[in-house]
Amino acid sequence: MEQLASTWWLILIRGICAVIFGILAIIWPAITVFVLVIFFGAYALVNGIFTLVSAFRHNVESRAWLIISGILGILAGIVTFVWPGITTLALLYVIAFWAIFTGVAEIIAGIRLRKAIDNEWMLIIGGLLSVIFGVLLLIWPASGALALTWLIGTFAIVYGIAIIMLSIKVKNLA
């Protein structure tokens, strides 16, 4: 605990950075979406390159799959940089379908578990909200991008405040 308490300020900096990121995401949602898309493109490109290097440096059975995965990653990165708007829309659709499918799974799990657990209705409500969120993203993707940015920003602020409070508690442990 003493080691953790001696670095309380690192936890504080993490919290402050999260709050600043959250505020900036809410103030500049369009820039935030663009930056997230560019970061995705950079990640996909770098990951694709390293996957290809790995495929050719290591003699593994799945070399063909690694090569395919690497090429797809590089292509995804290039497409992101060439057409960031299309990439943004595609990512929103991925999030929308993910929300719908996980929501349906939560509803089914809640129904099946109603005799085994208490308050299964919360799982069903959570699943229903997830489905609604996914459908709304499909209907209004531009508004969905804005809402996602605000959601990310709000989460970052709340998370940052929690981390700042944790840093104060950790500091008091010393």
TrEMBL record:
Key words of the record: Membrane, Transmembrane, Transmembrane helix
Keyword Membrane: yes
Keyword Hydrolase: no
Regions that span the bilayer: 7-28, 34-53, 65-84, 90-109, 121-140, 146-168
Name of the protein this chain belongs to: HdeD family acid-resistance protein
